[in-house]
Amino acid sequence: MKKVLLTGLFASLLAASVPANVSAADFKSDVTAVKQQYSVLKSQYQQSTSFKKSGFTAQDDEWYFTEEEPNDTPELANNLPMFEYMLGEFKTQEDMDFYEVTYREGFDEFILSGSANPEGNVDLMYGLFDLNGNLIEPDRAEFDEISSAFFYDIPAGKYHVLAIDGEGVARMNETDQYALIALYEDLTPPPAPTVRTVDDNDRKVTGVAEPGSEVVVKYGTKVVGTAYASRTGGYTVPIRSAQKAGSTLSVTAMDDWFNVSAATKVVVKDVTKPATPKVNKVDSNDKKVTGSGEVGATITVKVGSKVIGTGKVNSRGNYVVTIKPQKTNTVLYVAAADKAKNVSKSARVVVKKA
């Protein structure tokens, strides 16, 4: 087979073909079966058009393989590469084209699609056979004005494709061509990614996802970062800014078929120490220590290592800690601890003489 660049939809694409030397009578039952199946499916699924992979609706500058004769028996079948267009033509009334395709494991649906050049007269029909010569019935089909697609739930392995002209007319014009393509589809979402701990200083989210999948990190509905998992599944998603402690991030993985995993939720951990609390003047008569600090933090007042009082910072950022009056020149240490038990640096205050 030759692979050529399509620079105009039908510009000089076909290599010279060898006239078929095998009679259609040798495969009469196969040809009849393909015609019957194709006609029934076309009648049943006419104008069902959600699938769009026609060789003659593709953009210019697509790469195409071209059929090489003789390929009129399964033994002479051309290889039909997955996800590659094959351009063919019928040179005689009895010409038929066989292709061999390999369907790999790990996918949910095999798709065979064909289309005839709308500027030509080919009545393209095709079918999928197992290696024992049995025509396989597709689960469903789709048709539009120039193209069709058959969808199969089949095991991995090798298969043959037989393409024929339904009218059985010799086609000698360059416009009398057809295109085939074989694809597979993955309908299974990736597993939910694993996510390592994220704290409020982090500028990245890391973990493991399906290899090659796109990992998306969101806060609510807002995307805060994306990246692709490596061949081994590891990923690092840079995020635009460190996220606030207590925020919930959702992390999903999307594969090449746009299947999206369930979201893994991760709550941003608070590892940031509160600011050192401010302390008002304390004298030897005072029975309280006052000041300001992080809202909700617990204030601890110590003399040396001994705790002499605790209190909470209110919603306005102020606190009052009850203590016994301390001697002049006693050194007090005042620290704030947040809900995550991060402890600030201590403020040092010396008790003044009343």
From TrEMBL:
UniProt entry tagged with the keyword tRNA-binding: no
Domain of life of the organism encoding this protein: Bacteria
Domain named Bacterial Ig: residues: 190-270, 274-352
Keywords, sorted A to Z: Signal
Keyword Signal attributed: yes
Organism: Fictibacillus aquaticus
Any one Pfam family match given in the protein's UniProt record, by short name: Big_6
The protein's name: Bacterial Ig domain-containing protein
InterPro entries, per database record: Big_6, Ig-like_fold
Signal peptide: 1-24
